[in-house]
Amino acid sequence: MELELRGITKRFPGVLANDDVSLTARSGKVLALIGENGAGKSTLMNILSGIYRPDAGEIIIDGKQQHFADPGDAIKAGIGMVHQHFMLVPVFTVAENVVLGVEPTFAGNILNRKKANKEVEEISKKYGLAVDPKALIEDLPVGLQQRVEIIKVLLRGAKILVFDEPTAVLTPQEVTEFFGIVHELKSRGATIIFITHKLKEALAIADDITVLRGGKVVGNADPKTTTQEELASLMVGRDIDLTVKKSLANPGEVVLDMAGVSVMDDYGRPILDSIDMQVRSGEIVGVAGIQGNGQTELVEVITGLIPLASGAIRLKGQDMAGSSPRDIHKDGVAHVPEDRNHMGMIGSFTLAENLVLDSYYEKPFSKGIRMQRQAIDEAARVLVKDYDVRPPHIENTGGALSGGNAQKMIVAREFSRDVPLVLCAQPTRGIDVGSIEYIHEQIVKKRDEGVAILVVSTELDEIFALADRIVVMFDGRIVAELNTADTSPTEVGLYMAGQAA
Amino acid sequence: MSNQGSDYQELPVESYTSGESKSKVLNKNKIRRARIIGVILLILAGVVMFVLAPAAEGNATFGLSFPDDRFQLDALSVPSTGSLYILALVLGFLGGTQFLKGFQSKSTIILGISFALFVVAVMIWATAGQEFSLISMLVSTIARCTPIALGALSGILCERAGVVNIGIEGMLLGGAFTGVVMGSLVGGWVGLISATIVGGMLALLLAFLAINFRVDQIIIGVVINILVLGLTSFLTAQVLVKRPEWNDAPIFPAIKIPILGDIPILGPMFFDQTILVYGMFGLVVFTTYMLFRSRWGLRTRSVGENPKAADSLGISVAKTRYLAVIYGGMVGGFAGAWFTLGTVGRFDEGMTGGRGFIGLAAMIFGAWNPIGAFGAALIFGFSDSLQQKLALINTPIPTEFLSMTPYLVTIIVVAGLVGRARPPAADGQPFEKQ
Predict the structure, then answer these.
(1) Which of A10, A242, B192, B265 qualifies as a FRET site for A109, CA 20 to 30 Å off?
(2) Are B301 and A92 inside 8 Å of each other by CB?
(3) Which tens digit of pLDDT belongs to each residue from B346-365?
């Protein structure tokens, strides 16, 4: 089936999310839709899946104009969405998830589980999507969960499959497998729309590329002839340097020394399992791993946010066990948290207030019980300028900033302090390319000042761009320690999946 | 960058001994827990040995049959002092073993068994030199677990769909009041149906505020509880006192099921009860089956676990939640009728006495599963009935202490024995359609 969008326009209060967007997804081909966050990709997809209705424009499938009143209409027209955040019920089985809403039943609406399992197996076989229909979703790795999502839309007869950032949560091996699935679907005549901001993947899989910026289509590209740099400039609207420039690391003394560090969850099971790790001054250690393998806890235990079950954490030789998060933060550890909206800042506070969240109680920001508004504002103005936070109005609330600028504000607060260790958890998650470039520069600069830096990221590209040394976490353990120069994304990917070791 | 390789090999190697410490940490926690349980058991053994046993005299006699039962069982008579010392030794042995070695994964079961033994010890001590009708206590256990199990079921229905219902107490009270008034005016069956409808209407209020207006569900629950308590107290004082004929409903009689009702002990417990108790059994079984085997159940649970996913598949989250909450409320109202139409036939202010909250505890202890919640309700029903029967015979325990028992048990069970069950993932979260 061929899908054509003509002049789609969608206005939200104050924002023109889609401005006269026209594109074509050819039958049996892969169209990559690329653009930064806020470029209007999600709005466009929500229009396509019947969640929003466009203010103007037409959706045409095989020459026929369509009107979607709700997601059900889009499903009936043959459009299937595979959402970035999987729409699965973790405590249900694969089959239960797949048939939810179109359940085969006996009389009296009693579920026919056998038939449900069979329906899943049939599609599995037909498209080469092997998965056990009786397995619980929560027991499956993310790659398999994605298959379940695909089976779900295929069962509903989708001919046009829309994948929203499908590789964001996959290991490199799973990405390869996923591309195999896309080829299989393609060969069976499915039309595929692939939304991504990963240019490499768009080039690898797409037959056509459409670039969105600021709600408009700014260009179409042929993946055979274009380059990542060209796409990036189209996407951002200016020239972009995708590589991080850095010199060789010059590691000095051990700053962070973790020995046998374990952390338990509420049920007494280990989430961190005897972690041994050192970070030296003047080096960047990258922690690679799929989300949820203990990286969050690693950062939280170093910053004192969760208690240590056993082992020792030493900062410049000093035991940090039992120190309060404030003491750890004050004397030694800057922390750019992974969830900037919940841990990094307070959305309803002003920029100035957010910039002194960690030091408001100290001189010169406080005298006795009174806060010194003037000193706070002065310091904030300097930081906002130094770290290029835009717009630089310190009286605006933090919540009004874009993701990239909010992150720059947090980086400004954390990096402006003179501490021996900096923790950056997912420092560039979900922010624009320009801000990524800037934050990466700042991290390298900090390293060159002789600070020890730990970067946790689920993006392998980021790990390889920044890290001098890579540790891979799997299931709460460190399964590999590698020098960046001596390894490859493929090798790290194998460790991330827990397959090597 | 490859020249860094040599640099890192100088790092101390002795700290890289993983593998062992995992089990060590686990053990440390386990051992501490085992010790604590062990000490608790040893204390219980000490209480039986040094407090209960010396104070007991003569035989403790437990009646196992009612006088008019077809098959009569002889009353069970045990020498109180001797059996108490034996129980003390058993408890001491379990406690000691647990303290030294630990029963590993079985320690929770051992803890449960030990509490049961301790309860037996208290019963023997309290009955020493007297006769105690064990059978009547067991029968009343089932009766008294009825409103708790139904209250828990009401909570399960709402929470499985993602709506927290702490207004069960109010639904019970509303059902009890309506049941007695309509029962007095028209008749028992009409009373029961009216009670069920009132429960459903209170749930409709919960659903309306929680789903359409996304009001905090805890607050709605509290409001329902206070509203119903205030309203029924006012109406009792202003209306029922002046018109006592409106507060005099017929009580549903116990219906004996032929043959099954004659089985010793089990017969009177399970097959010679009122329709409210049979209704409870029916609702528990029916709801369990429907929740886990039917299309309605799958959709209801999906809405309580991941409403976004359900919505993306064309399932109406609001409609599904409304249905489940109203069904839950009707179960709550039905349970309320037990307090009046199932027992005394008259309404007193606040007569539900927190059974709705105990139902919530049973729901959690039963891990949001109706059968599990029924099991938990049995424990609460037992403690409730035990305190009531012990108050009848002359025990040294003051009745004020005895009437605390069900609530004490609730605290112990919820705080100590619950191995943190997992609630539905979207429990209490309003759903906002994009």
Answers:
(1) B192
(2) yes
(3) 999 989 989 999 999 999 98
> What is the separation of C-alpha A168 from the centre of its chain, rounded to a whole number of angstroms?
6
B242 membership: H or E segment, kind and range = none
Chain B neighbours among A 218-277 (CB < 8 Å)? 248-249, 251, 254, 259-260, 262, 264, 266-268, 270, 273-274, 276
What is the set of domains in chain A, with CATH numbers?
3-236 (3.40.50.300), 241-332+419-501 (3.40.50.300), 347-417 (no CATH)
A134, A95 contact by CB (below 8 A): yes
DSSP 3-state percent helix, strand, coil across chain A (nearest 5): 35, 25, 40
Q: What's the gap between Cα A329 and its chain centre? A: 26
Phi-psi region of B128 (alpha: psi -120 to 50; beta: other; left: phi over 0): beta
Q: What is the dihedral of CA B383, B388, B390, B391, to 10 degrees?
A: 140
Q: B105 to chain A, minimum CA–CA distance in Å?
A: 13
Q: Which pTM does this prediction carry?
A: 0.79
pLDDT of residue B104: 66
pLDDT of A248 reads 86
Q: Does domain B136-417 have CATH number 1.10.3470?
A: yes
Q: Are A100 and A88 in contact (CB under 8 A)?
A: no
Mean pLDDT of chain B: 86
- The backbone torsions φ and ψ at residue A262, rounded to the nearest 5 degrees and listed phi first, read -125, 150
Question: Are A262 and B22 a contacting pair, CB within 8 Å?
Answer: yes
| Closest residue in chain A to residue B426, using alpha carbons only | A89
Contact between A87 and B312 using a beta-carbon 8 Å cutoff = yes
Tell me the two tokens of residue A261: 């560090």
Nearest chain A residue to B304 by CA: give it.
Answer: A89
Chain B residue numbers with beta carbons less than 8 Å from the beta carbon of A51 are 434
Closest-CA distance of chain B to residue A222, Å: 33
Please write the tens of the pLDDT for every residue from B375-386: 999 988 998 888
At B76-130, the pLDDT tens digits run 888 888 889 999 999 999 888 888 876 666 777 788 888 888 888 888 888 888 8
Across the interface, whether the CB atoms of A101 and B308 are under 8 A apart is answered no
Half-sphere exposure of B284 (CA within 13 A, CB side): 27
Tell me how close the Cα of B163 comes to any Cα of chain A, in angstroms. 17
- Residue B70 contacts residue B262 (beta carbons within 8 Å): yes
Contact A108 B299 (CB under 8 A): no
> Which residues are CB-neighbours of B182 under 8 A, at least 6 positions away?
B190, B191, B193, B194, B195, B249
A336 φ/ψ angles, rounded to the nearest 5 degrees:
-100, 100
Q: Among B2, B22, B290, pick the best mutation site for testing chain A contact (most A Cβ within 10 A).
A: B22
Task: Give CA–CA dist A47/A61, Å, rounded.
Answer: 14
Arithmetic mean of pLDDT, A466-488: 93
Contacting A residues, span 464-483, partner chain B, CB-CB under 8 Å = 468-469, 477-478, 481, 483
Give the gap in angstroms from C-alpha B202 to the nearest C-alpha of chain A. 28
d(C-alpha B150, C-alpha B157), whole Å: 10
Quote the minimal CA–CA distance from B428 to chain A in Å: 16
> How far apart are the CA of B313 and the nearest CA of chain A, in angstroms?
6
**Can you tell me the distance from the alpha carbon of A313 to that of A309, in angstroms, rounded to the nearest whole number?**
11
Q: How many beta carbons lie within 10 A of that of residue A224, not counting itself? A: 8
What is the domain partition of chain B in residue ranges?
Answer: 6-129, 136-417
> Using CB atoms and an 8 Å cut-off, which of residues 201-220 of chain A contact chain B?
none
Residue A315: beta bridge partners?
A: A256, A318
Task: Name the residue in chain B with its Cα closest to that of A252.
Answer: B7
Q: Which residues of B touch A259 (CB under 8 A)?
A: 15
* Largest pairwise CA distance in chain B: 97
Residues A91/A111, Cβ–Cβ less than 8 Å: no
